[in-house]
């Protein structure tokens, strides 16, 4: 009975507090501040500056300001309840996905749990986006959703192929660990970067495959979260705000939080699956915490750098770029990972 109570305590802590809903929300809003501040400084603007020290609390103020506005833009076929359900579905999926990572007190670990991760991180957030957008049907919304679906056709396979590269190499090289597990990949991948004992040829090829797949996954993340140059589904000059045209008040606040959560969880996925999280230190050590934060900030900085440096692609340009520089390289890297 005591063991069951302890397990339930860990479950509640992991889902609701850390790394669950509360911690993920705070980290996501801080990540939004970092992205906004970085892009603003790149473009000679101030960025968030007034709420809190160096504007650190501006995303929190924006969120609560929208959340407390009890007003929806109503129209004949709108469904605010459907929109809330769609956002809740996406936020719930992202929160659950964190339980697969080593930083969670309660970890979900199993062979081939990457399949669950793909469902939670790739499929459900995309379906959530479609549900919440179509809750307010509008010509601009429909056009934005159609563009999002077009991007997803090449973005989602790229994410899957890229994530499978380090997992496949680890499954072949370390057969004693559970194959295709997020946890065991995250705790073992640092060995691929730092262990030349497998032979210089295999070591160099492994490094090349990891680098290629990591570049591909960063491009795919940029497209999945629809940051420049892939913000085509919400192009202001063409579609007002695309799929988000009719959002307002609490729905818009939750949708923005959901968007920030996607950036946060995807950045954490890159940090753990490709860079080993806090490795070679533990999560509870000062060195491990600092290394984990440094890797996370580096990944988010790269995403921010790309957003600030590029203009928006046309939809045909975006598809060609993703296929040429992300999808094809990630598929080739995946095929080679089966061979080495």
From TrEMBL:
Cellular compartments annotated: Membrane
Main location: membrane
Annotated GO CC locations: plasma membrane
Protein's membrane topology: Multi-pass membrane protein
Cross-referenced InterPro entries: ComplexI_Subunit1, NADH_UbQ_OxRdtase_su1/FPO, NADH_UbQ_OxRdtase_su1_CS
Transmembrane annotation, as ranges: 7-30, 50-69, 81-102, 114-136, 148-171, 200-221, 263-283, 289-310, 322-339
Keyword entries, A-Z: Membrane, Transmembrane, Transmembrane helix
Xref: PANTHER family: FORMATE HYDROGENLYASE SUBUNIT 4, FORMATE HYDROGENLYASE SUBUNIT 4-RELATED
Name of the protein described by the UniProt record: NADH-quinone oxidoreductase subunit H
Species this protein is from: Ignisphaera aggregans
